[in-house]
Design goal:
Structural class: alpha+beta
Protein name: Copper resistance protein CopC
Number of strands: 6
Distance between the termini: 45 Å
Number of helices: 1
Largest sheet: 3 strands, antiparallel
Strand order of the largest sheet: 1-2-3
Helix content: 10-25%
């Protein structure tokens, strides 16, 4: 059996942590209040749709902004 590399393990850990409470209006226990907005980016490009569907890749940079 092949041993997963550290980047893959880190990506799996992040995915597990985020997808338990990840939605267009929520990240973990943090929710966007009325009139506020959450935006997601992947390598600087806006992410549309459900951010839980975002597939993690090596060296990917994901941004989450509350506005």
């Amino acid at each position: 059996m092949k041993t997963p590399d550290r980047a893959r393990l880190a990506a799996l850990a992040v995915t597990a942590a985020l997808t338990s409470h990840l939605a267009p209006t929520q990240v973990g226990g943090e929710k966007a209040s009325a009139g506020r907005k959450l935006t997601f980016t992947s390598n600087g490009a806006p992410v549309s749709g459900d951010p839980a569907d975002l597939r993690l890749e090596p060296d990917q940079r994901i941004g989450v902004t509350f506005r």
